[in-house]
Amino acid sequence: MPVLSASVASDGAASAPPILAADSDDRGTLLSVQILRFLAAFGVAVYHAHLHLAAVQPGYRSGIEDRIFQVGASGVHVFFVISGFVMVFTSFRGGRSLSPRQFLERRFFRIYPIYWLFAAVYVVTHWALGSPYALSSSDYVGAILLLPTFAAMIIGSGWTLTYEVYFYLAFGVALALGRRTGLALLTAFFASSAVAGAVFHLQGPVLSILTNALLLEFLAGCALGLIYRRVAVPILLGYIMLIVGGGGLVASEMFAPEWFPLTLALAPFSALLVAGALTLERQISAPVTHLLARLGDSSYTLYLLHILVIDLLLEISPVAAFGRHSNASALLAVPFAVAATALAVVGHRVVELPLLRWFRRAVLKTAPITTLN
């Protein structure tokens, strides 16, 4: 992907160029997006680590600790907004758009092969540990295809990929209709579907996805992708959006009452967080932020592998023994996520990147599938 560029406004210290963000790094990747990807995946890993540790902790009582770690689950909502943004941003560049076939090929090879490989690792590992999956052949097929109700049967976090696949299919149809018409119809369809789900409470494995309010998060990301590089946003406003978005996610996860439809809060706050981060793209200079961006490259691997790492750590006897300590769930959740991150970085470099490069050369025979697209 070519390096992004934008003209710097004369008062660049006070506002971003006529975009929501500005230049990317030398890899053609938006650092802000990569940082958010890592933080979202890491947050989900911390959340799941706490869940698993709490499950084996004798006498564990839910309370404020659960609410604190619940914040990590909001990473899923940030992912969905980023996905909508990236699909628009990478599909309509230089006045040209990808064909539906090109788009779906890229999405397929970006998502499925690596997922299949790590799903196989899960199956083999559980078999080796003496706790094989009790799944039928149809269960395995459904999980491999990421079908509704089946997607989480091997990799627990796989349920979110069902939403991603559905969005990709719908976005592919939108591409066939042209940017303006396609995105308008996609917006109308997803919005009306979400309203229908809220009004009629449609049930069932397929209908619950087709009418879920989570679809609005993809639309929010698409909107950000459309106005990217078109709207001048003051830097101060970028910081405000970042703070309000991040603070809103924390407050919603911790304090929203059970009866409240949480997505109605998490969707706009996630969009604000992503918009704020994009606005501050040019402000990213500290070495630690570049490190976080590099870690964002391995966010998909982290998302897929972290549950297995958590389970393996709980199999190690000293860790398992301490894991039953009264405060273990709070003390070990972050270290477990750090361990998963370390393995994910290795997995990304050793497995994911070579696999993507091979598919690019041998199958797609086109531009690289980057960490951004």
Automatic annotation (TrEMBL):
Family matches, as InterPro entries: Acyl_transf_3_dom, Acyltransferase_3
Classification via Pfam families: Acyl_transf_3
GO CC, one annotated term: membrane
GO terms of biological process kind: polysaccharide biosynthetic process
Protein keywords: Acyltransferase, Membrane, Transferase, Transmembrane, Transmembrane helix
Transmembrane segments: 35-56, 68-90, 111-129, 141-169, 206-228, 235-256, 262-280, 300-322, 328-351
One MF annotation (Gene Ontology) recorded for this entry: acyltransferase activity, transferring groups other than amino-acyl groups
Domain Acyltransferase residue range list: 32-346
Protein name: Acyltransferase
